């Protein structure tokens, strides 16, 4: 069955960096776009970034020029490199496939 397992979250100071990973299994990873979403406390889940099967990225305006999505179709893994982190980036970050399948999420906290 489909599994998405995120890792790499943690506590970081403002201006710092984190790299999230999402290991996928149960489908032909290289044939599909992959997505990252996030949900902050008390807010709705929001889209962060997507990457096409061929590696073309798209970003929400709030993270563009700070975050980079990438993928390794051999390792069945999608990454989210987050730089210049801000307190408002604090959220649980989720990996998503086909709007239906979600990982368990990984907590990112940006605080001094």
Structure, described:
With 112 residues, the chain is an all-beta fold. Helix content is 0%, strand content 51%. It is built from no helices and eleven strands. Strands 2, 4, 5, 6, 9, 10 and 11 form a seven-stranded mixed sheet that branches. A four-stranded antiparallel sheet has the order 1-3-8-7, with no helix packed on it. β4 and β5 (46-51) form a beta hairpin.
SSE ordering = EEEEEEEEEEE
Amino-to-carboxy terminus distance:
40 Å
Q: Are there runs of 5+ residues with pLDDT below 50, and where?
A: none
Biggest sheet, in brief? 7 strands, mixed
Overall geometry comes to: globular
Q: Portion of residues in helices?
A: under 10%
Q: What count of helical segments does DSSP give? A: 0
Task: Let me know the average pLDDT.
Answer: 97
Please give the radius of gyration in angstroms.
Answer: 13 Å
Number of strands: 11
Beta-strand content estimate = over 45%
């Amino acid at each position: 069955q489909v599994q998405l397992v995120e890792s790499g979250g943690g506590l970081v100071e403002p201006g710092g960096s984190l790299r999230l990973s999402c290991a996928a299994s149960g489908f032909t990873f290289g044939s599909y776009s992959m997505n990252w979403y996030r949900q902050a406390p008390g807010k709705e889940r929001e889209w962060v970034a997507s990457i096409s099967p061929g590696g073309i990225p798209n970003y929400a305006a709030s993270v563009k020029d700070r975050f980079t999505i990438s993928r390794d179709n051999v390792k069945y893994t999608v990454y989210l490199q987050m730089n210049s982190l801000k307190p408002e980036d604090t959220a649980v970050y989720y990996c998503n496939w086909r709007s239906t399948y979600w990982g368990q999420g990984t907590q990112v906290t940006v605080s001094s």
